[in-house]
Amino acid sequence: MAGDLHWLRGDCHVHSRRSHGGELTPEELVGAARAAGLDFIAVTEHNLDAAGDPWSRLAGDGLLVIPGQEVVTETGHWLALGLAPGHVADWRYGVRDDLIDRPVAEVQRAGGLCVVAHPHAPYPAGTFMYPFDGFDAVEVWNGQWSSDLPWNADNEAALAEWGRGLAIGVHRHRWTPAIGNSDVHLAGQIGTPQTVVHAADLTQHAVLAALRAGRCWIAGSAAIQLTLVATAGPSEAGIGEHLPAAGGEPVTVEVHVSGVPSGTVSLHTDRGRSHQEALPPAGAGTATWSTTDRPTFVRVEVRHPTGHMAALTNPVILT
Known about the structure:
Pol/histidinol_Pase-like, four-stranded antiparallel β-sheet, Immunoglobulin-like, TIM Barrel, alpha+beta, 2 domains, PHP_domain
């Protein structure tokens, strides 16, 4: 990976008291984000503009606050990240109206990022009924409904749906990255999970560009660390990057993980789960896999001994 990039941790789905069910003030949210060691948050109130005060006043000193919106429609929610002041994306439609493409395109034309939110949320209108096509990312891990152990059947379903579409997306050169967020409404939720991005600097433009490119992975907590590097001959690539190699040249994938005692590291390709190794009780270890049977991509899942997710990555593309 390029040496001038930085790994930054953030939460792109954050609510204050202005949203239904939110219990925290902006000051409390920003304090919690700083305490959790986050570098950035995206404020996504329900169908409200989150730009300007108090967020601009509370940002700085190493914390980037990205203005956004959770667009709550009749048949699913999506996140609009990086909105300009006063820009509220239209939410007054359902899947039968065939109108969602217009507000999504408006956000993207203005430089914003559009994210499918909690596509299998277990409440009326929470399940995402629109196609993922046209969106910049999918929230495959949402922590709101299980803050004590933020991985549940709804996240498992979202991951499976995203994973099934990844192979054809990579083949067509328009795959959709995965991200994970807390969807914080209550104290103790922020940063569980969090998205770790490889960005040029701590600016809105750089963070959104890294998310859009898939140069990111998802961690269940700040205690979990992960690196993924694939090599072929003299070339190497990391998460969200492309690895060029001649036909038949072996590809070696190396994954370093810490913070997951007795966990399991599995490597997934367009052929499904292709390799698996156990982590030691101390929680830090390395998994290595080599193949000459060239898959189109490789991505990583790290799970606790219970089977619940600890971390997952976007793919390295093996072109």
